Amino acid sequence: QVQLVESGGGLVESGGSLRLSCAASGNHGIFYVRAWYRQAPGSQRELVAALTSAGTTDYADFVKGRFTISRDYAKKTWSLQMNDLKPEDTAVYFCKAEEKHPFRTDDYWGKGTLVTVSS
After folding, report:
1. Which end of the chain is more exposed for a tag (fewer CB within 10 A), N or C?
2. 7 backbone dihedrals φ, ψ, rounded to 5°
3. Which of 11, 28, 37, 4 is nearest to 115 (CA)?
4. Which are the contacts of 64, defined by CB distance < 8 A and separation ≥ 6?
5. Could you give the angle at the alpha carbon of 10 between the alpha carbons of 69 and 34, nearest 5°?
6. How far apart are CA 23 and CA 81, in angstroms?
7. What is the pLDDT of residues 40-80, one digit of tens each?
8. Angle at 39 between CA 46 and CA 109, to 5 degrees
9. Residue 116 burial (10 A CB sphere; 0-12, 13-18, 19+)
10. DSSP label at 101?
11. Model confidence over 12-40: pLDDT tens digits?
């Protein structure tokens, strides 16, 4: 059973910074994509940032220049550094991993961590 656990959420003032981390446990193969999503109240879950095993990154337009996704090989975690946070960044943030097999892709999700940005 693969389990993803997020950490690092909390309350921060507008303009502040937070760093989220995601740790994976259990028996799994290679994660080809590691990503962060978020879901605000009343909204759909949306992609924030993604990092492939090849090192390429993809960011949502609304976080470009403010958020950075990275991977810690030693700790086997991946993180989301969030700078210049805005009240509209308030959401539950989820980490996701994609494990590809010859004929299917397994998606794993964390349970989420709440980020609240006060104005």
Report:
1. N
2. -150, 160
3. 11
4. none
5. 25
6. 15
7. 999 999 999 999 999 999 999 999 999 999 998 888 899 99
8. 80
9. middle
10. -
11. 999 999 999 999 999 888 899 999 999 99
**Residue among 55, 49, 23, 35 at smallest CA distance from 98:** 35
Q: Are 27 and 3 in contact (CB under 8 A)?
A: no
pLDDT value of residue 23:
96
pLDDT digits (tens, 9 = 90+) for 87-116: 999 999 999 999 988 899 999 999 999 999
CA dihedral 7, 9, 10, 15 (to 10 degrees): 140
Tokens of 74: 């030693």
Amino acid 106 reads: D
What are the angstrom distances between the C-alpha of 41 and each of 50, 60, 88, 109, 114?
22, 19, 11, 18, 11
Sequence letter at residue 38: R
